[in-house]
Structures are given as C-alpha cells and as structure tokens.
C-alpha cells in the first residue's frame, strides 16, 4: 500500500479576512480524503505567529521544518500576506509544490487596479474608476454614485456604495483604514455573475457553471457569511451571455497567469460582461461559491480538492 500524501493546509493570516480563512482551511482539512492524504494543519495568527496542529506557537522556522516534511502545501489564506503571492513565494523558495496561483498572478489579482489594467489590455471591460491615496483623497469630488473599495482587500471589507456627497469622505476613510490605495469606481448596473476557472491535473482548463448573486445593493460581508445570501447556480443565462462570460473568465485567468482555481466576478450588463475582480484564493468551505459552482457541474467538494492537490504535484 502506497504512503499517503502529506498535505500542509495553511489558514488564518495577518489581515481582515483571518476568520474567513480559518473556516476555509478547517473545511479543506476535514474534507481531504484520509485514505489518500495525511493532513498537517498550520495556522497563522493575526500577529503573524505560526502555530502547529496543536495550536502551539512554532514560529516561521518551526513552520519551515513542518513544511519540509510535507509533499504539497495547500495555502487557504485569503487576502494580503497570503493570497497576494506571499505564501506562494515561501513555497517557491523552499522548493515545495503548492496549490493555487504563483507569485505574480497572486500579486496582480490581489491588486484590483492592476487587474483592471490587465483586463483592459486583453479586451475585457471594467468599470470606469480612479486610483486614490491618502494624499489625494481630499481632492476627490463627488459627482455621481460610486463604489469605494481598498485596492488590496477581500470579503467586501472596507467597500462602500456612495450615493451622496456626505458619505464620500467616511467611505474613503473606511477603505484607507485597510489599504494605502483606494479604488473609486462608477456604479455598474447589472446582474452579479461569478464563474470559477480550474486548471486540472491533466493541464486542461475548465470553467464552472455560472453563479448569480441576488443582492439588494452591495454583496457585503454579512451577506457573504451570514448564511442568508441568495446564490443561484447555475445562473439563468441565454447562450450568448453564458459564452461571453465564460470566454471573459478564461481570458482573465490566462492573462493573469493563474493556476489552481480562481473565481472571476462580473457584472452582466446590457452591453455584456464587466469584470469586477479575480480571486486566486476564493472561499473554500463546502458552501462557498466555488465549490457550489463545481458541484453543479458534478464535481463534488472532496473531488475538487483532490484535483487541486494532484494538479499542484
């Protein structure tokens, strides 16, 4: 009988998505087939402390020793110092196979402004917007409804829909509390549609069925994680819209250089898809959007995780 594959599952992280990441990592660790995989959980505290499976502090050097004894690393750290390529860089330097996108696509996709530039370069529409810093925020004038968001944060943290001049400055302050750069975009009127893209172990790149988010206003943190979100998969789309969304998702995944699985978020407007953002470490509980989308295509949660680990190897 062959030895089980040792998989280090890393959760937590030093950012505002810490709790979400813990949930994703715990779900991944529990769902990996124990007959095939020996799961080695590692946790990064909010202050950067690394902890082992017994939650004992072991520091980065101790974590490196644990990682060296593993066959594959499965990072499930959403947001900065994780999803942005930081953990991919650690794995690259250590020569360890890892699940998900590499350093460059992680950094590019985490930066919503950079993502817009890449998307526009390959012909994918994005919302008109401007980049604002703490130094320039005071010069921004409100003229119409906008969405204010940190350039590099996730889970809708620090995101505000601004419909009046009085709420612009508080929205900028909330976003600047999480990042030193802020994106101010025009409001896009359209259906919120997500598509997941997966690079399989055989090298094939496949798109999931589309998922529609039905929300009143911004799909915020409470909507995402409060258990009340109205997520419809497969989304009700005609053939033209379905193909346009899939083509745009595949093009964005390819242009950024993604690997593993990524979730590509769009607004579907009367003029076609408008890219919102790309998540290279999307939520990965069994009830998160990406597993739901692939489940609708017949790929169950445990099988999706197995595909990701085999692809990394």
Automatic annotation (TrEMBL):
Top class in the EC scheme: ligase
Pfam families assigned to the protein according to its UniProt record, in alphabetical order: Dala_Dala_lig_C, Dala_Dala_lig_N
Binding positions for Mg(2+) 2 per the UniProt entry: 277, 279
A GO term from the CC aspect: cytosol
Cofactor(s) the record lists: Mn(2+); Mg(2+)
An individual GO BP term: peptidoglycan biosynthetic process
Keywords for the protein's UniProt record, in alphabetical order: ATP-binding, Cell shape, Cell wall biogenesis/degradation, Cytoplasm, Ligase, Magnesium, Manganese, Metal-binding, Nucleotide-binding, Peptidoglycan synthesis
EC number assigned by the record: 6.3.2.4
Subcellular location: Cytoplasm
Cofactor binding remark: Binds 2 magnesium or manganese ions per subunit.
SUPFAM superfamilies hit by this protein: Glutathione synthetase ATP-binding domain-like, PreATP-grasp domain
UniProt-listed NCBIfam families: D_ala_D_alaTIGR, PRK01372.1
UniProt record similarity statement: Belongs to the D-alanine--D-alanine ligase family.
Function: Cell wall formation.
Protein name in the entry: D-alanine--D-alanine ligase
Gene: ddl
